[in-house]
Write a structure and sequence with these properties.
By secondary structure, the protein is of the alpha+beta class. Helices cover 23% and strands 25% of the residues. The N terminus is likely disordered.
């Protein structure tokens, strides 16, 4: 949602996420305070893992466990096939739990997690959690007066460099960009260039939004809905991102002294940033362009936004995580200073700003309540990853 994830606001950056849904670039990030960057560690196995509290002693809520079990079941076809870049598990580790989950009585979901899992504390277990949601903004399929902000689908000239045409990224992949008229690989158009018309007239418009600032945040979330005056809705999901790094607008505002409770200052939240942009349209437009990252979207249908596992993300159940530190599809227990975000979640998404051990972005669904909770979520506490029984002992006996 997203990416992108959703995304969705951090270090007073901005959301994640979100729902950015689907993948390797772009995604949730938020505009709330974030912890200082930690030294780079490749994955969870190298960060250190120790056995945590028994699942039976965590005090799962019945409703929370039932929702987590449903999401875990949808994740199983991916969990049992995909490579786990965290270094914690291999696909076959998940087969017993996934086989049992398919026929497990929903009413006894708490016992399922106690019977099939142990908990693992990665690094020091200190968690930081933000939120993302599925925004709904004013928009239409066909351009009309008052709806002038294009919603672009993935451009065909946005590609990864051929080997040898550009240095690879730290993860070994080739960078995203485009080939110019001379066949030379170069960076793709950034946000300002796209807003100034770099993609206009290419037939990529799949909708039109009314408010550029609201559209910016829909992109940050990685998915959302356009609602037309006649009540019709166009649902949008993450399709891709232009290859530029995400820049947190909230941190820029903080650096400029715009965040706070004094005169001329704004709250450290998505809502605060929107208010600043609406009250200062010229400065606000320039501010948003500091984030050169741009998210492309696609029309979606079905149960809900789709996350990095290519399964629907569910409100109050899905979190975005860094797959280098949490196996995507794994349950996660969060004990936080925000009770509404504490409990059992399932890591089904990723986000461009969701990096490192115990860094999560919680998905809250759609609507006004979801927007308020996600926009103000900045929780700290403890995280435990639920892994198949015996995993921690195997890791520590290598």
């Amino acid at each position: 949602m997203r990416g992108m994830a959703a995304g969705l606001l951090l270090a007073l950056t901005l959301l994640p996420g979100c729902v950015r849904l689907i993948p390797d670039t772009g995604g949730p990030a938020t505009g709330l305070p974030q912890p200082a960057p930690t030294p780079s560690i490749a994955n969870a196995a190298l960060a250190g893992v120790r056995l945590g509290t028994s699942p039976a002693g965590l005090g799962f809520r019945d409703d929370n466990a039932r929702a987590a079990l449903a999401s875990f079941i949808t994740s199983c076809p991916r969990l049992t096939r995909r490579t786990d870049s965290s270094g914690l598990t291999v696909p076959s580790d998940w087969q017993p739990a996934c086989s049992a989950a398919a026929t497990w009585p929903v009413a006894d979901a708490t016992q399922f997690f106690a019977a099939h899992f142990e908990t693992a504390e990665v690094a020091d277990g200190s968690a930081f959690v933000t939120g993302y949601y599925e925004p709904e903004i004013a928009g239409v399929r066909v351009r009309q007066p008052g709806y002038d902000v294009p919603v672009y689908s993935m451009p065909p000239d946005l590609v990864r460099a051929r080997p040898g045409d550009a240095p690879p990224l730290p993860d070994g992949r080739q960078p995203l960009g485009r080939y110019d008229e001379f066949g030379v690989f170069t960076s793709y158009w950034d946000r300002a260039q796209i807003e100034d018309g770099a993609l206009a007239g290419k037939g990529l418009e799949i909708g039109w939004a009314a408010d550029p600032a609201e559209m910016f945040f829909l992109q940050v979330q990685g998915s959302g809905r356009l609602r037309a005056p006649d009540g019709s809705v166009l649902r949008l999901g993450f399709a891709g991102q232009n290859g530029w790094d995400y820049t947190g607008i909230g941190q820029i505002m903080r650096d400029r002294g715009l965040v706070g409770s004094g005169p001329g200052q704004y709250p450290a939240s998505m809502q605060g940033i929107l208010r600043y942009v609406h009250e200062n349209p010229n400065e606000g437009r320039a501010l948003l362009r500091q984030n050169r990252s741009y998210v492309f979207l696609r029309e979606i249908s079905g149960e809900g936004p789709v996350g990095a596992l290519n399964v629907p993300v569910r409100p109050r159940t899905t979190v975005a995580a860094d797959p280098a530190f949490v196996p995507l599809g794994a349950p996660v227990w969060l004990q936080l200073d925000r009770p509404e975000a504490s409990g059992l979640w399932v890591a089904q998404d990723t986000g461009g700003a969701i990096k490192g051990a115990n860094r999560f972005d919680s998905f809250w669904g759609a609507g006004a309540d979801a927007r308020t909770i996600a926009g103000g979520m900045a929780a700290r506490g403890r995280a435990l990853v639920l892994l198949p029984k015996g995993t921690v002992a195997r890791l520590n006996n290598r």
